[in-house]
Amino acid sequence: GENVEQHPSTLSVQEGDSAVIKCTYSDSASNYFPWYKQELGKRPQLIIDIRSNVGEKKDQRIAVTLNKTAKHFSLHITETQPEDSAVYFCAAIKMNTGFQKLVFGTGTRLLVSP
Amino acid sequence: DVKVTQSSRYLVKRTGEKVFLECVQDMDHENMFWYRQDPGLGLRLIYFSYDVKMKEKGDIPEGYSVSREKKERFSLILESASTNQTSMYLCASSSGQHRRGNEQFFGPGTRLTVL
Predict the structure, then answer these.
(1) Model confidence over A33-90: pLDDT tens digits?
(2) Contacts of B102 in chain A (CB under 8 A)
(3) Residue B55, Cα to own-chain centre: how many angstroms?
(4) Which of B3, B38, B68, B106 is the best mutation test for A, with the most CBs of A within 10 A?
(5) What is the residue-wise DSSP string for A5-53?
(6) Any idea what the Cα angle at residue A17 is, between residues A9 and A61, rounded to 5°?
(7) Whether the predicted pLDDT of A97 surpasses 70
(8) DSSP label of A99
């Protein structure tokens, strides 16, 4: 089955810096890669996703890149702000082949210091 | 807005007790999931259901069972609670359609402590 590894487990940056979180997956047939953000004491929420037919997707200060050959994808946050502090989870799934289940990474705790 | 609710935010039970965690969603979603969240281990899938009365084992089903008698409700049952089941339990639901790539909507979580 699919296995998703996520690094680093914790990441501390200064406000205004960039942050990068990386994930690798094992199943080359996986074709949808969402990222979820979980603020302290709150539920995880989808913030951005990418499908395997594109290499990069951007939404304001966040972007996700995908390298299918290397089987890794990354979340990039630019101009970080204290409200970006949260745990971020990557995930992978193989869509359109019967019932699918997301496989999550172990999470990255991002701390943005003012 | 999708709303996923869980019956309790905090629960304290004793070893050996039978525990019921309830999840309700109001968006007519076909798929429902139970995860447990532990530090350093991320979100691990316990069970999921893609239709009423249907259930499938996830990655860590041992010690748990589920029930889905109605489309909107998915229950997680700990038959005989043990201390290693102390954890945060998250319920989620998603549409069976692919308009948004199976985005999962999570409940607020139940923090279960087994003494």
Answers:
(1) 999 999 999 999 999 999 888 899 999 999 999 999 999 999 999 999 999 999 999 9
(2) 32, 93, 95, 100, 102
(3) 12
(4) B106
(5) EEE-SEEEEETT--EEEEEEES-TT--EEEEEEE-TTS--EEEEEEETT
(6) 90
(7) no
(8) S
